Amino acid sequence: MFELHPDLQRDCYTVGQFKLSLILLHKDANYPWLILVPKRQKVREIHHLSEEDQIQLIKESSHLSEVMTSIYAPVKMNIAALGNVVPQLHVHHIARFKEDPAWPKPIWGATEQKEYSPEELEKRLERLHSSLVGEDFQAWCGTEEDAGSNQGFFTP
Amino acid sequence: MFELHPDLQRDCYTVGQFKLSLILLHKDANYPWLILVPKRQKVREIHHLSEEDQIQLIKESSHLSEVMTSIYAPVKMNIAALGNVVPQLHVHHIARFKEDPAWPKPIWGATEQKEYSPEELEKRLERLHSSLVGEDFQAWCGTEEDAGSNQGFFTP
Predict the structure, then answer these.
(1) Stronger pLDDT, A71 or A147, i.e. the higher one
(2) What Å distances lie between residue B94 and A29, A36, A37, B65, B120, CA to CA?
(3) Cα torsion for A125, A128, A134, A137, to the nearest 10°?
(4) Dist CA B43 CA B57 (whole Å)
(5) Facing A106 at nearest CB: one of B55, B82, B104
């Protein structure tokens, strides 16, 4: 059974899921920063996914990039599967701007994490929930206890 | 017509090409660091490629990751499409080790570039040329003047 790695659970809010991947929002409010986690057990590398899952992953990744581009109008999307610290396969999707605190450098370790205010967070999640149609999107509205489980998802 | 961006031409050696992408080796010898550049004009984002090209890209990316894993036996592959500085779509593939100078951080900007010796470079390219079969691989053995053009490729 798929279980979300505790580090990802600690660092992110759950947004919803596509057919293959869980969709997370990183808690760092410096950037619109979403993460796809394919719901497959103990997979650490993209090339360890089946060919079918790899194709589904790039579809979900591009769909997410398109939606993030339409919502945030970034200068550039940054897409990355690093995972040197957290061993569960996860793919970063970060909308980058010339005014963001790390530009033009990669964001990791560039600056101190900034928290979302409850209002900003609610607004960001609502906008994502209403924009992320396609690829069997289901929004998440579970409780803290449901996080990382299969509970709390609904089709908008 | 596809033209390789001059910054990528300056920073990399050409290894060969797959059906969709040019394969480059970054000149920084600190890491086994290869870069795929889809041979499509003026594309900056993965999601701007056609669906067919996206699927081909993930196939070539995973094939490259598998080959790099079999040659270098890294702890982790780092895959990233950033492109904040160089506007041509290019996807980094870096084999990471616990002993490398940036571990566990991302490599960009982490340490001074190290040059390959001519012997190391020749050995690295030869090994790649003999391992990168599949996805219509063609090795490159052109001259400096051919770099970035369609000249100098051959099927091993």
Answers:
(1) A71
(2) 28, 20, 20, 9, 17
(3) -10
(4) 13
(5) B82
Which one, of B87, B92, B28, B30, lies nearest residue B64 by Cα? Answer: B92
B9 has a pLDDT exceeding 70 = yes
Distance from CA of A49 to the nearest CA of B (A): 9
Residues whose CB falls within 8 Å of the CB of residue A36, separated by 6 or more in sequence, listed in order = A18, A21, A22, A23, A24, A57, A60, A61, A64, A90, A91, A93
Three-state SS letters, B34-89: EEEEECCCCCCCHHHCCHHHHHHHHHHHHHHHHHHHHHHCCCEEEEEECCCCCCCC
Residue A139 CB contacts under 8 Å (≥ 6 apart), including other chains = A15, A16, A129, A132, A153, A154, A155, A156
In degrees and rounded to multiples of 5, residue A94 shows phi and psi of -125, 130
CA distance B66 to chain A (A): 7
Is the pLDDT at A156 greater than 70? The verdict is no
Closest residue on chain A to B108 (Cα): A106
Residue type, A81: A
Which value does ipTM take for this structure?
Answer: 0.94
Closest CA to A38 of A51, A25, A56: A56
